[in-house]
């Protein structure tokens, strides 16, 4: 079936194989079932299925594009911060040398 029971301090946890996890995610993505439906069929908590889907699932084109935009946004913000620092340094240097001549 793809699961084992693991005991930890008196509590019993189920351990699922990676293949089982991937198959569960595939059911959600290809068959159009909700995580709750797949959870009931397989006896797995829907919240656990959501975590598996984040890890093993396909990213939609929209999510991938959003992720790319966020990365680009972070890079540009860092560059703006660096350029603002450089501008402040140049302003101070200009003021210093202008006062030095007088």
End-to-end separation: 86 Å
Mean pLDDT: 86
SSE order: EEHHHH
Number of domains: 2
CATH superfamily of the largest domain: Homeodomain-like
CATH architecture of the largest domain: Orthogonal Bundle
- Radius of gyration, CA atoms, in whole angstroms: 27 Å
Structural class: mainly alpha
Q: What general outline do the C-alpha atoms trace? A: elongated
**Tally of contiguous helical segments:** 4
Which strand order do you get reading across the main beta sheet? 1-2
Helix percent reads over 70%
What's the story with the biggest beta sheet?
2 strands, antiparallel
Looking at CATH, which topology of the largest domain would you report? Answer: Arc Repressor Mutant, subunit A
Secondary structure blueprint with pairings:
Blueprint: E1 3-8, E2 11-16, H1 18-31, H2 35-42, H3 46-56, H4 61-101
Antiparallel strand pairs: 1-2
Helix pairs in contact: 1-3, 2-3
What does this entry look like structurally?
This protein has helices spanning 18-31, 35-42, 46-56, 61-101; strands at 3-8, 11-16. The chain is mainly alpha-helical and 102 residues long. Helix 1 (18-31) crosses helix 3 (46-56) and helix 2 (35-42) crosses helix 3. A hairpin with a 2-residue loop joins strand 1 and strand 2 (11-16). It is built from four helices and two strands. It folds into two domains: 1-58, Homeodomain-like (Arc Repressor Mutant, subunit A), CATH 1.10.10.60; 59-102. The mean pLDDT is 86. Strands 1-2 form a two-stranded antiparallel ribbon.
């Amino acid at each position: 079936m793809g699961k084992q029971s693991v005991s930890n301090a008196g509590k019993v946890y189920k351990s699922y194989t990676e293949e089982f996890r991937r198959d569960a995610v595939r059911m959600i993505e290809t068959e159009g079932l909700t995580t709750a439906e797949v959870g009931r069929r397989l006896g797995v908590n829907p919240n656990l299925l959501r975590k598996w889907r984040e890890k093993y699932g396909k990213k939609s084109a929209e999510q991938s594009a959003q992720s790319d935009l966020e990365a680009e946004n972070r890079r540009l913000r860092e560059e703006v911060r660096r350029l603002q620092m450089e501008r402040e340094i140049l302003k101070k240097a200009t003021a210093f040398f202008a006062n030095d001549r007088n």
